[in-house]
Design goal:
With 569 residues, the chain is α+β, with helices and mostly antiparallel strands. Among the domains are: 227 residues, DD-peptidase/beta-lactamase superfamily (Beta-lactamase), CATH 3.40.710.10; 82 residues, Lipocalin (Beta Barrel); 86 residues, Lipocalin (Beta Barrel). The protein is built from 13 helices and 36 strands. A hairpin with a 2-residue loop joins strand 1 and strand 2. The N and C termini lie far apart (69 Å).
Length: 569
């Protein structure tokens, strides 16, 4: 409750005055609305391009207090049978599911059945001892260092549209021999952690995640159309199907998961609205449980990250929001609760290339900028770029060029117009000098770069922010002969995944081979860094012995680091 009625009036004044004209709710076809027609029309205009009789689309919901004030479906939930999207259509939630897994853990923690700061092996003795304590909280915050399950499965030869069962993921995780990083050192999104949280719930309650959440969360909240879908063969009435766009029109985007924890929640708009309201009305659990759920994570160095327990805590127009989005197959989802405003927004789509930026375009119709004494809250401080011109260019020139991190990420630094710029993945940032060899970006002042030269003569740059890396300068001047290329050829085996890849010389180039995938060309980023077209192992770091012979490679890419493949012939 607000401390006084004056504060409540000030907050409500910041929500569009049109909401004061609400009329009794009525359901008409695809729409549930208590909005004035003019405001409803503005919402509809945002999603009009998907409101077609031959296209996948979306469903939306807008929540105020504990009521849905607007809900509508656009386009089709099933193209083959011409079934339209409606507010009642059941959707796969993808990673929006994680907050429910996390809340189940929070409820059990309050009962004393789980310790958030206990080592996970207390509950999961099957997980290997990797000589580093990993806590339940670190699984929740994505700071555990455990490699991501989807990427591991893909490397092993399992396609994402295969049937993937819970036990398949557990078997993969049981064989892990290394982490991406020391627990608590970085934030790196790991779906594996949430599958493991579901298994922790099973270990302490004797129930599956589905069974426990049904009794502890969904039934008490009246979420009658919600469950964790842990059996892909189960028939669910009124469910949507997902699609992606192609040159020949729309194609099915297959999803056949039989796993739950990181994903697989099924629900609809009316049920999700009840969950949104629980953030500020606390009908299941207590206020302290929501406080625990939304407590931001901390790294070992004390830095705070926006990711809490299965949910992101940040701001929109100065107002605190609890939010998460998701993407599996062709499903795209986003949910946000604004506890100070007692409002929430829902967007579920069944089209893989749906523009999810429309979510905040919708929210922006209802939420005005938060102000205190006419001064915007949390206004971004923009650095002064007037002194961006470098005064000592010769001292900076030694740091110019191309840099590479262990995970294959690249930076290029250049000087143009006496100003220093950094480029990464097609994005260019102006860098401002703070002190000798230390720079910050003009657009993100918290992102800093420190250049230095090591004792061995390597030029490096340290990227300073949560999850930042060290990049080593390299040159692209590597043009191997066929004889040199042949040294890379052979069979490579991973004991952790029990799978093999081959590197073969075809014509005058190397290709990566595997029994489950088409051959893909290998490109070089320096002598010991290989690039492929596979998203699951786009960067391979070559390993050598003391005589410079190749002994294997590591997959160092995205959410999987230091995954060893030994060269066996």
């Amino acid at each position: 409750m607000y401390r006084n009625s004056h504060m409540a009036l000030r907050i409500m004044a910041l929500i569009l005055p049109a909401l004061c004209l609400l009329k009794p709710a009525s359901v008409s076809g695809q729409t549930l609305s208590v909005l004035p027609d003019s405001l409803a029309g503005k919402v509809d205009a945002i999603f009009d391009q998907w409101n077609k009789p031959s296209s996948p689309g979306c469903v939306i919901g807008i929540v105020r207090n504990d009521s849905v004030i607007y809900a509508k479906g656009y386009g089709l939930s099933n193209i083959e049978y011409d079934i339209t999207n409606t507010p009642g259509t059941i959707y796969h939630m993808a990673s929006v599911s994680k907050q429910f897994t996390a809340y189940a853990i929070v409820l059990l923690a309050r009962q004393g059945k789980i310790g958030l700061d206990e080592d996970i092996r207390k509950y999961l003795p099957w997980f290997p001892d990797l000589k580093s304590s990993i806590t339940v909280r670190q699984l929740l915050n994505h700071t555990s260092g455990i490699r991501d399950q989807w990427q591991l499965l893909a490397i092993s030869g399992t396609r994402i549209d295969d049937v993937i069962k819970q036990e398949h993921i557990v078997k993969i995780l049981q064989k892990q021999r290394a982490l991406n990083f020391r627990p608590g050192e970085q934030y790196s999104y790991s779906n594996s952690g949430y599958t493991m949280l579901a298994e922790i719930i099973r270990s302490v309650t004797g129930q599956s995640l589905r069974q426990f959440t049904d009794s502890a969360i969904f039934r008490p909240l009246g979420m009658k159309n919600t469950h964790f879908h842990d059996d892909y063969t189960e028939v669910v009435k009124n469910r949507s199907y997902s699609y992606y766009s192609g040159s020949k029109g729309f194609s099915n985007s297959i999803l056949s998961y039989s796993n739950a924890g990181a994903t697989s929640l099924f629900t609809n708009v009316s049920d999700m609205a009840k969950w949104i309201a629980n953030f500020y009305m606390h009908r299941v659990g207590e206020a302290e449980d929501i406080q625990t759920l939304t407590e931001k994570g901390k790294l070992n160095n004390g830095k705070t990250i926006d990711y809490a327990l299965g949910i992101v805590v940040n701001n929109f127009k100065g107002w605190k929001q609890y939010t998460h989005n998701g993407a599996d197959a062709g499903y795209r989802t986003a949910v946000a609760s604004f506890p100070e405003l007692k409002m929430g927004f829902i967007l579920f789509s069944n089209l893989g290339d749906f523009n999810m930026g429309k979510f905040y375009e919708m929210a922006g119709l209802f939420i005005k900028e938060k102000t205190i004494s006419r001064v915007p809250v949390n206004k971004r401080v923009v650095p002064d770029t007037s002194n961006a011109v470098l005064k000592d260019i010769p001292a900076i020139k030694r740091f110019l060029g191309d840099y590479l991190a262990d995970d294959g990420a690249q930076y290029h630094f250049r000087i143009t117009g006496q100003k220093l710029y950094g480029e990464r993945q097609g994005r260019t940032e102006l860098l401002l000098k703070l002190k000798k060899d230390t720079f910050q970006t003009a657009s993100e002042p918290d992102l800093k770069f420190i250049f230095s030269v090591t004792r061995t003569g390597d030029t490096i740059v340290r990227e300073c922010w949560p999850g930042g890396q060290i990049f080593k300068k390299y040159t692209l001047d590597f043009h191997p002969t066929d004889k040199q290329l042949q040294a890379y050829a052979g069979t490579y085996y991973s004991p952790e995944l029990d799978c093999k890849y081959g590197i073969a010389l075809k014509g005058h180039e190397l290709v990566l081979t595997n029994v489950k995938y088409d051959d893909t060309p290998i490109k070089f980023t320096g002598e010991d860094h290989l690039r492929t077209a596979f998203w699951w192992m786009a960067h391979l770091k070559v390993l050598r012995n003391n005589t410079n012979q190749i002994t294997g490679f590591e997959v160092n890419d995205g959410r999987v680091m230091h995954l060893l493949f030994n060269k066996i012939d």
